[in-house]
Amino acid sequence: MAYTDQKMSGGKVVAIVIVVLIHAALGYAFVTGLAYQYVKKATEKLNTFDVQEPPPTTVVTPPPIVPLPSQAPTMATTNVIPLSQPTAPPAPPAPPAPPAPPAPVVSKAAGLKGNPGQFFGPDAYPPSAQREGAEGRVSAKLSIGTDGRVTDCSILSSSGNRALDDATCRISKARVRFSPALDQGGNPIASTYTLNIRWQLPQE
After folding, report:
1. Euclidean distance between CA atoms 201 and 158, whole angstroms
2. Could you tell me which of 201, 121, 197, 194 has the C-alpha nearest to residue 159?
3. Strands 191-199, 178-179: pairing kind
4. Which of 141, 148, 162, 180 has the maximum number of C-beta atoms within 10 A of its C-beta?
5. Which residues pair with 188 in a beta bridge?
6. Rounded to the nearest 5°, which phi and psi values hold at 19?
7. pLDDT digit string (tens) for 83-122?
8. pTM for this one?
9. In degrees, to the nearest 5, what angle opens at C-alpha 55 toward C-alphas 54 and 61?
10. Contact, 138 vs 164, CB < 8 A?
């Protein structure tokens, strides 16, 4: 009886130890599982991302500030319009010119004094015309003043030689004299006269 109780008491101890070990194992397994799930959940919640290095920054130096020269203020200019001066009234129109007096009526024509042929002799013959053997007749219009002198000469008909024509007018102004023409009252007046001269080389 005592042995049996002793044997049964040893079996109880073993059973109790086994139960304790089983509980310890279950507790360990339980604690380990909970810890694993907690670590897994914590790991899943972590967001992973790559850290990139920032690019190198370039330092830009601003340009130097150059002070600009100040401009002189623009002055407004105005054109000064001078006051209009009073204008003088227009001059009255010039009176019409009086009509020209009527040409005097020649009662007596101008007359030659002496023989004009003597002024156109061989000694008055132009040397150039002599060398060329030029001859010819010249008709000249002479203007005669109130004193009887020749004031102008124009060639009406040429001799064909310039030297003979020029000699005719030159001699007429220098040597030929007239009695002036007279009007109806006997007063001397200017007039004209046609002079005809024949230039002929002297015969040898």
Report:
1. 17
2. 197
3. unpaired
4. 180
5. 182
6. -60, -40
7. 666 677 787 888 888 887 777 788 889 999 988 888 888 8
8. 0.50
9. 120
10. yes
